[in-house]
């Protein structure tokens, strides 16, 4: 057992993946995941998330760099890593003629110390479908079955590739609850997702990938804080933009005016909001339709992806 096993369950350094035709899908990325953490990999289509997760699962060898899962190389030391990990691929690809229970039983036969099938089917809310053939399940129910199978071995580390794609709102919430409960029980979870709300809700830390590189990492709050906050209001009757205090002095980085609606962007939300409200108070006017808000993870994601496309920023690392 390596000394830092309890600290970093997954360690990725300078990782690269190159496909047959020479295309470099993962271009030297670094990140680590601590025990009991939920870590989300986000990114635009084709960013390299699945290519990365497959390397962590030991399904392929890296073209460069290093991966350690539970202190082992998941590709060359597969036998040491595989029994302690659970994997939910994007496409389960199970025989469609088997029933749900038969599929779970078949899969359990490949897992040492498997939990009872009924138990994992209940965890994902599929116990009532035990006798139904896989081909008769809806897309969302198949994702639940994929998740149930990943849980059969009671894994220490769980890899979930887009676990809630195709699930309805209730199914998504159920999966979030389950992942939260697994995390509380000490399971380390690495997931990929297209749903920023999901990452915001579930992830302790995340990385945003773009074209094979990591554009930003940190907690959702840290990554979100990288994007300016917004203040929107209507100019009071009889007032013009020039009547406001100088915007630069309020810490406003840019602004737009649309009719009487003013939109400000600032990285100093408290200073800008306080200055504006003090001005309104002093002038004895009301700022109608006032809306003051921090950026959402979605806004931060779009901003980071745009910057990365334009090549204007170095990777942003917010994590301690
Ligand atoms: N077997 C392959 N051979 C060649 N190129 C591949 C192969 N698999 C993936 N790629 C390319 O590698 C890049 C990364 O793909 P990957 O599936 O890892 O992205 P992703 O971030 O998971 O995307 P998505 O969000 O769309 O699932 C893409 O440009 C894709 O076309």
TrEMBL record:
GO terms for cellular component: plasma membrane. It comes from the Bacteria. Gene3D superfamilies: P-loop containing nucleotide triphosphate hydrolases. Residues 10-236 form the ABC transporter domain. Keywords: Antibiotic resistance, ATP-binding, Nucleotide-binding, Transport. It comes from Streptomyces caelestis. It is found in: Cell membrane. InterPro entries: AAA+_ATPase (IPR003593), ABC_transporter-like_ATP-bd (IPR003439), ABC_transporter-like_CS (IPR017871), ABC_transporter_ATP-binding (IPR050763), P-loop_NTPase (IPR027417). One of its GO terms (biological process) is response to antibiotic. GO terms for molecular function: ATP binding; ATP hydrolysis activity. This is Multidrug ABC transporter ATPase. It is a peripheral membrane protein.
């Amino acid at each position: 057992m390596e000394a830092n096993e309890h600290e970093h369950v997954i360690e990725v350094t300078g990782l690269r993946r190159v496909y047959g035709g020479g295309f470099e899908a993962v271009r030297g990325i670094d990140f680590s995941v601590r025990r009991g953490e939920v870590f989300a990999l986000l990114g635009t289509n084709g960013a390299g998330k699945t290519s990365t997760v497959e390397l962590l699962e030991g399904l392929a060898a890296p073209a460069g760099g290093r991966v350690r899962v539970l202190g082992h190389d998941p590709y060359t030391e597969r036998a040491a890593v595989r029994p302690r990990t659970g994997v939910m691929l994007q496409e389960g690809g199970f025989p469609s003629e088997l029933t749900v229970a038969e599929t779970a039983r078949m899969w359990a036969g490949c897992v040492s110390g498997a939990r009872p099938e009924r138990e994992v089917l209940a965890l994902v809310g599929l116990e009532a479908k035990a006798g139904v053939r896989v081909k008769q399940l809806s897309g969302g129910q198949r994702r639940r079955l994929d998740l149930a199978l990943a849980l059969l071995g009671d894994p220490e580390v769980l890899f979930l590739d887009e676990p809630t794609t195709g699930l309805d709102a209730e199914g998504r919430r159920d999966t979030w609850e389950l992942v939260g409960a697994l995390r509380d029980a000490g399971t380390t979870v690495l997931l990929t997702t297209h749903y920023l709300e999901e990452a915001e809700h579930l992830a302790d830390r995340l990385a945003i990938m773009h074209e094979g590189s990591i554009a930003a990492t940190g907690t959702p709050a840290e990554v979100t804080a990288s994007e300016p906050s917004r203040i929107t209001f209507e100019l009071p009757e009889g007032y013009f933009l020039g009547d406001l205090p100088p915007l630069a002095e309020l810490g406003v980085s840019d602004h737009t005016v649309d009719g009487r609606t003013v939109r400000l962007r600032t990285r100093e939300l408290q200073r800008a909001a306080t200055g504006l409200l003090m001005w309104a108070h002093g002038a004895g006017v009301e700022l109608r339709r006032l809306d003051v808000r921090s950026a959402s993870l979605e806004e931060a994601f779009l901003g980071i992806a745009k910057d990365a496309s334009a090549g204007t920023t170095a990777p942003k690392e917010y994590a301690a």
